[in-house]
Amino acid sequence: MVEHRMRKSRRGQRTAWTRAAGVIVAAMVVASSCSGGDDGATAEPTVTPDQTETPTVEVDDPTPTAAPTATPDDVEVEEPTVTPESELEAAVGVWEQFWDVAGAPDDDLESAAVVESLLTPESADVVFGTVRGSADRTVTNFPVVDDDGVGGFVVNDCMFMSPPLSGPTVWFSARLIPDDAGGWLVDDLVVESLDSCVPAVLAREAVAGYEAYWDARLEYWDPPDVENELVTQTMTGVHLELISDLLVQSEQDGWAFRGRPETHPEIVEVRSPTELVVLDCQVQDPLLGAYSLESGERLDDLVAPIADGQRDVRSAVMIEEDGFWKVSDRRGEVNTTCDLAPTEFGLLTV
């Protein structure tokens, strides 16, 4: 996203003009007279109230001689700048543009020219030596980009390729460097792994959906409520059908399912950008089981009691659907031996 920073320049002048009228002061009026008295006294001058006027000052309204200048808030100076965010966006755009044409067949000379224009010569050798061939490959990118500290970016991308090079995903890394024309080039392109990896964003979302599934069971199983919205938000496919039928049956029979295991999920398989497989070594909750809604009694004939320190292995196929990652199929083994994640079975997260 290109951002523009707005800077306000402050420039203001104040002008005022004041014109004062003259000050008129009424002074004293002196009256003198000569008395015919024998003492020869001279009358003192007097000031009567009627002879005194209060000084007044009249000020005309100030009239500016020029139009007022703009105040600081009235002036906005737009200074477009190239921000780190816009540089990152441009660099990632070149990376994705490159992969849009990198998997074209060898005989597509137009796409080959585009590829070469976006790569340094050494990186072009990697592409033409591994990715391009007789097949027309499509690529789905999940780039993770970091600043390289010297004006460019480092990108790691666990991407889906169809048809695949080996597994459904492959990990490429590269540097994105500025070119002389103000654009970006792909440099130091490396095939980090042809074995399956999982994009970090998909791993986070699928695992969060898996955890939400176990949390939701506490809501719709006690008491059983097949109409609870969490049922369809956390499950799909055959697993949704199975649990929905069980909820209806348990409501009729008057029992609830309680307890939540301590979960340790990891991604062990990627099938597509919307389908992953989770493996989970669970530490089981001692309270997990079926309970009578009427008496609260534990129904061990429906769900066997939990052994001390019991661990169960669960696997779940996670499907992204309607904005939610949902359990579509779930299998497992109870009271077995397993290691908590991360294990050797977990895929490399990029």
CATH domain fold name of the largest domain: Nuclear Transport Factor 2, Chain: A
Indicate the overall shape: elongated
Number of helices: 6
Q: Care to count the β-strands?
A: 15
CATH C-level of the largest domain? Alpha Beta
Helix proportion: 10-25%
Kindly report the oligomeric state of this protein. single chain
How many individual domains?
2
Q: What is the CATH-assigned architecture of the largest domain? A: Roll
The termini sit apart by: 24 Å
- Kindly name the structural category: alpha+beta
Low-confidence stretches: 1-72
Q: How much is the radius of gyration in Å?
A: 43 Å
Could you tell me the mean pLDDT? 82
State which percent range the strand residues make up.
25-35%
Profile the largest sheet: 5 strands, antiparallel
Question: Can you write the helix and strand succession as a string?
Answer: EEHHHEEEEEEHHHEEEEEEE
Description:
Helix 1 packs antiparallel against helix 2. The protein is α+β, with helices and mostly antiparallel strands. Strand 4 and strand 5 (153-162) form a beta hairpin. It has helices spanning 84-102, 109-118, 121-130, 200-220, 229-234, 237-253; strands at residues 4-7, 77-80, 138-140, 143-147, 153-162, 169-178, 184-193, 197-198, 255-258, 265-272, 275-283, 289-292, 311-321, 324-333, 348-349. Strands 3, 4, 5, 6 and 7 form a 5-stranded antiparallel beta sheet that branches. It has a 4-stranded antiparallel beta sheet with strand order 10-11-13-14. It has a two-stranded antiparallel ribbon with strand order 1-2. The chain folds into 2 domains: 84-197, Nuclear Transport Factor 2, Chain: A (Roll), CATH 3.10.450.540; 200-349, Nuclear Transport Factor 2, Chain: A, CATH 3.10.450. It starts with a strand and ends with a strand. The longest helix has 21 residues, at 200-220.
